[in-house]
Each structure stands twice: as C-alpha cells, then as structure tokens.
Amino acid sequence: MFISDGHADRMWVRVLAENLHRAGLCAFHDEWEIGAGDVSFHLLDVEIRGSTAGILLVSRRRRPGCG
C-alpha cells in the first residue's frame, strides 16, 4: 500500500503507517524506505507501480512558507 502525504501531516502519517503495519499490512512510507542518497523519484515510481492499493491524504495544513 502506497501512502501519499504532505510534509505538514508527517506526524499523523507516521502514526497511520505504524498502525497499518501493526495490522499486518505492507505500507510504503517514505520516511522508512528512502534513505540519504537515494533517488527518491525512482523509488517512488517503483513503489507506486507495484502497489495494489494507495492512500492519498489531503488536508488544509501547509508547510510553513508555502503560501
């Protein structure tokens, strides 16, 4: 399962991903999967294409300085 989120919701998404993992679901959370030096665009593409489900989180919260 691929989780797409905005950085302003990072803490909430981390809890969601942990709960999904505890429930036995395989969730891709970039904080866990993408390391320093990784080409994130390629990793995200591979994960999105390989996922059978996805969660898109949309909120009114914005990262400071982003209008």
Automatic annotation (TrEMBL):
The transmembrane segments are none
Q: Identify the Pfam families for this entry.
A: TIR_2 (PF13676)
- Its Gene Ontology biological processes? signal transduction
Gene3D superfamilies, alphabetically? Toll/interleukin-1 receptor homology (TIR) domain
TIR domain mapped to chain residues: 2-61
This protein is called what?
A: TIR domain-containing protein
Organism, as annotated: Candidatus Protofrankia californiensis
